[in-house]
From TrEMBL:
<dbReference type="InterPro" id="IPR038371">
    <property type="entry name" value="Cu_polyphenol_OxRdtase_sf"/>
</dbReference>
<comment type="similarity">
    <text>Belongs to the purine nucleoside phosphorylase YfiH/LACC1 family.</text>
</comment>
<dbReference type="GO" id="GO:0016787">
    <property type="term" value="F:hydrolase activity"/>
</dbReference>
<dbReference type="GO" id="GO:0017061">
    <property type="term" value="F:S-methyl-5-thioadenosine phosphorylase activity"/>
</dbReference>
<dbReference type="GO" id="GO:0005507">
    <property type="term" value="F:copper ion binding"/>
</dbReference>
<dbReference type="InterPro" id="IPR003730">
    <property type="entry name" value="Cu_polyphenol_OxRdtase"/>
</dbReference>
<keyword id="KW-0808">Transferase</keyword>
<dbReference type="InterPro" id="IPR011324">
    <property type="entry name" value="Cytotoxic_necrot_fac-like_cat"/>
</dbReference>
<keyword id="KW-0378">Hydrolase</keyword>
<dbReference type="Pfam" id="PF02578">
    <property type="entry name" value="Cu-oxidase_4"/>
</dbReference>
<keyword id="KW-0862">Zinc</keyword>
<keyword id="KW-0479">Metal-binding</keyword>
<protein>
    <recommendedName>
        <fullName>Purine nucleoside phosphorylase</fullName>
    </recommendedName>
</protein>
Amino acid sequence: MAEVIRSGRLSVPHGFLDGEQSDANATALAVGEMPVAMLKQVHSPDVVRVTQAFDHGERPEADAMVTDKRGIALCIVTADCAPVLLADEIAGVIGAAHAGWRGAQGGVIANAVAAMEELGADRRRITAAIGPCIAQESYEVGEDMRAEFTPQDHTFFKSGASGKWQFDLEGFVASRLKLAGIATVDPLRLDTYANADRFHSYRRATHQNGDKTARQLSLIALPR
């Protein structure tokens, strides 16, 4: 089994897990044994403040969460969208966001940063890491999606096959972090689509008629 993927910029307990690791032992692999908070992710800009782990049936609909409580792991699930882990280690505030193109465009990153500041974080100190997600070379989209973006954001699209575009999701998410005032951003540049032996990819599963329900987990926590 490969090692847990970590950012060299985050020193709080955290980990981006591959498909094989994303099972019942995921928390221990990434952050140690502790309760886990998960969301019902819906590609929204919504953020929740976490004070305790949620029961499965009580998971709120949102795509980011923040906490200043120690000993609770925030967990995001993805299979092409970008998992973003954030921390202001001085303030003792962390966040986690699920950023597909629609959520990132809609403000989930800026909202997560604002919610962290409500708990005492300072965006000038926040570090963010962007985990495994679909890379531009693997993300072919149509003109209809490109039309959803402002002309200023067309820089994240490069011309592909006839009538198609290649979208840079990781670059777009990094740009939203920068716009939110985050100076330290660590994009890990790991392509979920191309690395079939390691990561689940919804798009690859669609193309190959595979399992579209599989996900990998990304976790962050404050130490107990």
